[in-house]
Amino acid sequence: MLDLSDRALAVLLLAPAAILLSLIIVYPVLRLLYTSFFSLSLTSGLPAEFVGLENYQLMIEDPVFWETTWNTVLITLITVPGALFVGLGLALLANLPFGMQWPVRLSLLIPWALPLSFAGLIFAWFFHSEYGVVNDVLARFGFPGVIWFNSPNLAFAAICLTIVWKTSSFMALIILAGLQTIPRSLYEAADVDGAGRIRQFFEITLPLLKPAIVVALIFRTITALQTFDIPFMMTGGGPGTSTATLAMYIHQNTVSFLDLGYGSALAVVMFALSMCVTAVYLRIIRTKE
Amino acid sequence: MNEKISTAALALFAGMAAIAQPAFADTELKVYISSQHQPQVWRQILDKYEAANPGTKVSIETGGNTSEAQAQYLNTIMSAKDSSLDVLILDVIRPAQFAAAGWTSPFAGKDMSVYLPAYAEANTVDGKVVALPAFADSMFLYYRKDLLEKHGIQPPKTWDELTAAVKKINGAENNPELQGLSFQGKAIEGAVCTFLLPYWSQGKSLVNNGKLTFDKDAAVKSLKLWKGFVDNGVAKKNIAEVATDDTRKEFQAGNAIFAVNWSYAWAQSQGKESAVAGKVGVARLPAIAGGEQATCLGGWEWGVSAYSTHQDEAKKLVEYLSSKDSSKFMAVNGSLLPTYPDLYKDADVLKAAPWFADALQVVETAKPRPVTPRYNEVSETVRTTVNAVLAGVMTPEDGAAQIEARLKRILR
Description:
heterodimer, A: mainly alpha, MetI-like fold, two-stranded antiparallel sheet, 2 strands, 75% helix, B: alpha/beta, D-Maltodextrin-Binding Protein, domain 2, five-stranded mixed sheet, four-stranded mixed sheet, 17 helices, globular
C-alpha cells in the first residue's frame, strides 16, 4: 500500500512536467511529422491534401536542399572543432592563477551574452568591402581589399570565423567550470612525481575535462546544425544561395513561401539529423561510464 | 462576511462596467504601415479621420524596414489568423498572394475606374477588388543635372548612351569616388526589377496569365548588360552588396552620376542632408539599343484583414485612406506619387513636387511584376540569380538557365 502511494506521489509530482513537455515538444514534433505528409501551401488557396511521401521525393530532387544541407554540415564540421580549440585555450587562460581574473571572465561572457543576430550584423560591417575594418587593416599592411561577400568561399570563411568568435566563449565557460572542479592536489602530486606541464595537461587536465567537453560539444553541435542568425544577417545566403543553411531554407519555405508541407518535411530532416548527433554523443558518454 | 462578499461583488461589477463602457462607445482600429513610407504623415490623415468620426480610434503599428521583412511579419500574423490588425499596407506585388490565402476581405461593388489603370488591375484578383491603392510608384533614372549640363550631355535614352556619358564625365572629372551608375545587386526585391528592366525593354514578358513566357536570349542579354557595367567600371565592383537604400545614400552623397531608384529617393535628395540638392534630374529609365524604354511598377495598397473583428469600420477607413483627398495630402506632404491621374496636374501637388508633371507618363507605362500567388518564390529565384551573376559566381548564360528551370517548377 505504501509503495503504491509512493508511486502515486511520484506520478503526481512528475505529471505537470510531463504534460508541459508533451504540449510544447511532443505534440509539435508529431504535428510537424503529420504536416510533412500533406501538400499544404497557403498561397495556393487549396485545402491540405494528403500526398504521402511526395514532399520527401521533391526534396531529393531539389538542388537547393542538397546545397543548404551540405553548407550546414560544413559549418558544423568547421565551427564545432574551431570553437572547441579556441574555447579550451580561453578557458585555460582564464583559469591561470593571476590576481585580476574578473576582467578576463567578463570579456569571456560578452560574446556569449550578445544576441546572435547582433553578432551577425556587427561582423557584416567588419567584413564590408568599403566601410569594413577588416579591409582597412589589410590596406594598412599593404594588401589589396577583398570583396568578402562576392565570393562563396570568402563569404563562407567570414561566416565560420564569426560563428567561432561567437560560440567559443560558451565552450570556454563550460570548460572553465570543469577546470575548477579539478583538485589542485593532483597537480601538486604530479609536481612531486616530476611530471612536466605538458604531461600534466594530457594526463590530468584533459581526461578530467572530458565530461565537460562532451556536454559542451553536444550543445554546440545541435546549435551548429540549426545555424540561422549569423549567415542570415551577414550574407542572407548569398552570393546566390552559396552560404544558405538548411535552417534558412526551412524559414524561407515556411515563412516567405508559406509552403507549410514542404517546410515541415525539411524540418523533419533537420530534426532527424539533430537526433542522430545526440544519439552518438549519448552513446559516447554511456560507454565512458 | 456577507458584507465583504457584497463589497467585492460590487467592486467587480464596477470594474467590469469600467472596462465594458468604452468598448460600446469606441471602435479601436489598428493600421499596419511600412516604416519607410512616412507613418508620421499618415498619422495626420488618421487624426483628421478620428475628428470626423467620433467614437473611432485608430492606432498605427510599424515594423520591418524592407518589403521582405514586412511580408514575413504579416505572413506570421495572418497565418496565425490573428485579429489584432484591422488594416494592412501591402506592396503592389502582394494583393494576389493575400487574396489567394484568404487573408483580405473583398470590397464588393467598388468602382476602380477612378484610379490609374495599373492599380485598378493590381488590386483586382479573379474579378474581386481585394485592396485599394495607397500611393503609386515606379523606378526612375536619377541623374546629376549639374554634371550632365557641364559636359553637354542629354539624359540618356539607351544604356549605351548612359555608358558613353559615364565614360566622358569620369574621364574629365577624374574623381575616383564618383561611380557611373548605382543600381540594386543585392538579393533583395529591387534586384527583381533590375533583371526585368532590360528584359522588358526587349519587348518580352515573363509571365502571361499565370503561364511562364520566359525568353532565354532576352534574359541572357539582361544579365550580360548588368554584369558588363561591373566589368567595364560603370558600376562598382561590389554592386552585389548594394541594396535600394544604399543606392539612395550613394547618390545623395554625390558619389554617383546615375542611379536607378524609386520615387522616394527624390524627397531625400532635396533634403538638408543631401549633397546634391537642386542638382538632381529625374528621367525615364534607358532602353536596350533598339528596344523600348520600360520601368517597373511599384506602389502600395490598403487591405482589410479577413480576421478583423471590425470589418465595416475598417473598410470605411480604407475608403478614406485611398480617397482623392488623402492621395493629394500624401503627395503634397509626403511626396508620394498619387493614384488618381488628374492629381498629377493639380497646382498644389506640382508646387510641392514639380517633377510629378513628367512622372504620370512613366507611371502609366510602368509594367507590373508577375502577378501570381507564388510571387515570393518567383522573386527569390530571380533575385538570388541576379546576385550570383553580379558577384561573378555564375555566368549570365547559366543564370538564365537557372531562372528558367526554377520558374518552370514554380509556375507549372
